[in-house]
Amino acid sequence: MTTKQAIVEAIEQLPEQDLADVLQYVQQLARTQKSPTKNPPTSSSDPLANFIGAVSHGSLAVDLDDELYRN
Q1: Which of 1, 39, 44, 46 has the greatest count of CB atoms below 10 A from its CB?
Q2: pLDDT in tens, 1-34
Q3: What is the pTM of this model?
Q4: Residue-wise burial string across 51-71, b where 16 or more C-beta atoms lie within 10 A, e elsewhere
Q5: What span, in angstroms and rounded, lies between the C-alpha atoms of 48 and 41?
Q6: In sequence order, what DSSP letters do the residues of 5-61 get, joined into one string?
Q7: Could you tell me if 32 and 38 are in contact, meaning their C-beta atoms sit under 8 angstroms apart?
Q8: Which residues span the domain enclosing 22?
Q9: What is the dihedral of CA 23, 24, 28, 30, to 10 degrees?
């Protein structure tokens, strides 16, 4: 049995009130497959794009506890 056949058989077992939900899900899935993938943000489209990767430098939170909790 193919996946498509299994889906059809499962749908046939559902009550009528659930079929609208299944249809909505399948339509959303089809729209998602057709839509182009989003491009990564650029500095011109997203002001936070320049910050991406900043935490990989490792010094972002150096001595942060001392600054925050110093008595």
Answers
A1: 46
A2: 899 999 999 999 999 999 999 999 999 988 887 7
A3: 0.44
A4: eeeeeeeeeeeeeeeeeeeee
A5: 8
A6: HHHHHHHHHS-HHHHHHHHHHHHHHHHHHHSPPPPPP-TTT-TTGGGTTGGGGS-TT
A7: no
A8: 3-69
A9: 10
